[in-house]
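Much of what follows relies on a compact textual record of a protein's fold. The record below shows the convention in full:
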Amino acid sequence: MKTIFIIPLLLMSLISPASWGADFEKGVAAYERKDYGTALILLEDFALMNNSQAQYLLGNMYGPRSWSGINENRYGVASDDRKAIMWWRKAAEQGHAEAQFQTGYWLYTGQMGLDANVVEGAAWYRKSADQGNYWAQQELGFAYRQGRGVPKDYVLAYMWLNLSASGNWEYANVAASARDSLGRQMAPKQITEAQRLAREWVAIQ
């Protein structure tokens, strides 16, 4: 295992910091234009050197091309669930919010060949949600509403759904609809408490 990390380290010592940084930017640019084959070549060494963004992007490249888990070869990188989870988890353990959500989602749902672990999945949701990831906030809200992976708690469910709904993102209306539906099952004082907790969370960010 040690040789895996020695080779990138030796290569890094022979390349100027400016050139090394330029290669990372080129890798990210290739990823953004969906030239995954090039991105993989350029970013893999950075991932091996524990660059969390590179690890997250490698996870995305190896991961399913859709939420339905369709396995296909696209843009030069074949889907590989094992590698995707490995890289997402490595990035998640370094505090990468998006990787924490991905790790949480696949553990919570038990897809990609993983045994479902709703408690661990919800824990990763929480780490990501605390960093402001709207997807994680929404899914954590659903978890508290259902009492799955966390104790059932409508106040906390409303709080997290409210935070997700307040974000400027594509699916804010889904979180808002879920929050409002939940609110119709809650007492006014519970909603007031949930709103207070949401304001406190925002204040400490």
